[in-house]
Amino acid sequence: MKGRAVLFMGARKPFEITEYDVPDPEPGDIVLKITQAGVCGSDLHSWRGDGNPAPVAPGGRTTGHEGTGVVYKLGKGVATDALGKPIKEGDRIVYSAIRPCMHCHQCLNGRHNWCQQLFGTRIPTGQFPFFTGTYADYYYIRPNQPVFKVPDELPDSVLGFVNCAMGTVTEGLMQARCKEGDYVVIQGAGGLGLNAVAAARDMGAHRVIVLDRLENRLDMAREFGADYTINVEQEWTTPEMRIQRVKELTDGRGADVVMELVGRSQLMQEGIEYLGPGGTFVEIGNIVPGTPIPIDPSSILFGAKRIIGSIMFKPSLLPMMLETLVKKQGKLPYDKIVSHNFPLDKINDAFEQAEWLDRQTSITRSMLIP
Ligand SMILES: [Zn+2]
Ligand SMILES: [Zn+2]
């Protein structure tokens, strides 16, 4: 029995598809049949070759981290999800996309998303268990990746982005201590941004302001509860104008939380200027190193502002987010975040169409469907 897996061959090179034998799970492990795999902003950064990307070995590597699927085979000893709910073949599962070591100082303190081995040690391409990326027919899950059974009432269309986009922004807002009454600014209204609007609202934000250059995304942001949107290519085209606009929209007090979800270094410089005293800037989008920017330290000293980074999320958020999705069903258009589905073998088209740099795209989030 064979399954397909996509290989990333390096920046600006077409993806290739190979086939591997589907492995039997070892005791404690699970083989998942992927049903959706998300094209995340970080995948686009690697594909585009932003910053100083690490070189890729000649044989390429498996890729994709966001996604969901159904249980294909359970390893010996696995009968339940992480919360003790029975699981069997064919059940829908969300799983932790990070593979923390569970033994380091951070893991022992419950900060699994700060583990230095966040995605485990890289397994050489073509070696057991073969299926180490979500852009594939199957995905191999180890015990350090907790899995959770999906509530029956949730449609498939809201599951693909839970274990990256939704989790990452929820964690970021929690790290920023977003709370009742806050004024929140979200830079970027793609898959992460839309989830961030909803999460900020849920945490009690009184005003949410969203910036993007694509009007279709800003429309969606309003549907998710944004009070104000700023199209950075239409009316407010310079950083100075946008800083002024955010000041007006926050009654002159500035934002309590600003979250960068685009992955453009300059947005940090600009975003810090949106903050009011005591405000927190959360860096999430700039996942690729190599694009430093100057920052005036005095700009955070006056008003005691904070700049923090946030990466992925604690797996304990997964069941909480599934519950949120159940609670918000029919109230928020989570089923519209995924705007496009592509067959797995059309992965090169999927990436070309999702590209937003220097062009317009109607895509907010796309999923690859094996
Ligand atoms: Zn991601
Ligand atoms: Zn660790």
How would you explain this protein's 3D organization?
This protein is α/β, with parallel strands linked by helices. 24% of the residues lie in helices and 23% in strands. The chain has ten helices and 16 strands. The strands form three sheets. Strands 3, 5, 6, 7, 8, 15 and 16 form a seven-stranded mixed β-sheet that branches. A six-stranded parallel β-sheet has the order 11-10-9-12-13-14, sandwiched between helices. It has a three-stranded antiparallel β-sheet with strand order 2-1-4, with no helix packed on it. Helix 8 links the parallel strand 13 and strand 14. Helix 3 packs across helix 9 and helix 6 runs parallel beside helix 7. It is globular, with a radius of gyration of 20 Å. The two termini are 16 Å apart. The relative contact order is 0.16. The structure holds zinc ion (2 copies).
